[in-house]
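TA notes, week 10

Several of you asked for a full example with nothing omitted. So below is the full record: structure tokens for the whole chain, then the designed sequence directly under it. When grading your own attempts, check the secondary structure regions first.
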């Protein structure tokens, strides 16, 4: 089974952890790493400088579509980032754990 990483940004830690917990509980993600970031972006013609939280969802190709749909459904932003990172390789013990955690 192929591993997949999905990344998304969120407005605060509370929202990020709530969504991460829900998706791990549903076994759509084996793990979610959360870190605080500073983002600079254009929104409605203005440059924004905001603190956000980056969530890195670790899952499998089997769960990818459902996970993306759930993130979209739960996300508070009008235009959420939901980006997939293709993983070419992953150490076998971690991959085994990831698969076992998402079935």
């Amino acid at each position: 089974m192929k591993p997949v990483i999905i990344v998304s940004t969120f407005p605060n830690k509370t929202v990020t952890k709530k969504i991460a917990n829900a998706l791990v509980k549903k076994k759509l993600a084996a793990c979610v790493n959360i870190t605080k970031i500073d983002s600079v972006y254009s929104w409605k013609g203005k440059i924004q400088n905001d603190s956000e939280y980056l969530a890195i969802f670790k899952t499998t190709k089997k769960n990818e579509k459902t996970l993306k749909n759930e993130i979209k459904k739960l996300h508070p932003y009008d235009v959420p980032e939901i980006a997939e990172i293709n993983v070419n390789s992953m150490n076998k013990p971690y991959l085994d754990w990831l698969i076992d955690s998402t079935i």
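The domain at 3-101 is CATH 3.30.70.120 (Alpha-Beta Plaits). Use that as a sanity check on your answer.
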